[in-house]
Task: structure prediction
Amino acid sequence: IDVGQGDAILVEFPGKAKMLVDAGGLPTGTFDIGENVVSPVLWDKGIKRIDILVLSHAHADHLNGLPAVARNFRIGEFWEGTPDPRNPQYLALQKALDSTQRLRVARGFRQAVGGVEIDTIAPPAPAEAGKPDNDSSLVLRLAYGSTAILLPGDIGRAVEDEILASGESLRSQVLKSPHHGSESSSTEAFLSAVRPDYIVISAGRGNRSGLPHPDVLSRYERFGAQVF
Result:
């Protein structure tokens, strides 16, 4: 879902189940991307229930749209890696979730939905509550038959290397570009393991960080992936 600088990824499983990974968000101002962008997209698709709501990590461009989504839709489960109880938007999300089942997920957590296998690749273990960073992002691999999609949040080189060392299967036809196409991510070794045919970059037009980074785009081109 186009949320500008941020992530909001809707997964529609075979059958009726839906998963939403992040919901974008702005760090300042009163415009609520969850209320004014993400929710209308879901309503237009006739969606009333999100079976799995996922927070990859509690940064504004992933988190701040989620409270509105949690208020506007029936939520089956909530997945997260690192809680951030000092963050007002995180607290607003927890209040909106009310009695929703909440799961702290880490490597080894697997769930099948509609014939799709969801594997948690990172973090390696549930983190203590605290201020999360990009490298604490949840990394999810969704496999359906011979097709897989890798959603790596905002991880950087260090976590990419750690995942490679873990021996986890990364091969995926579709890769959500780590950290919005930042040069801190998408190493040659990581891309060699994933071998994506398609790469989707979620970044705001004219963003202050200049993402996606030209060197990363060149790297993607060398691997022959089609970039969106």
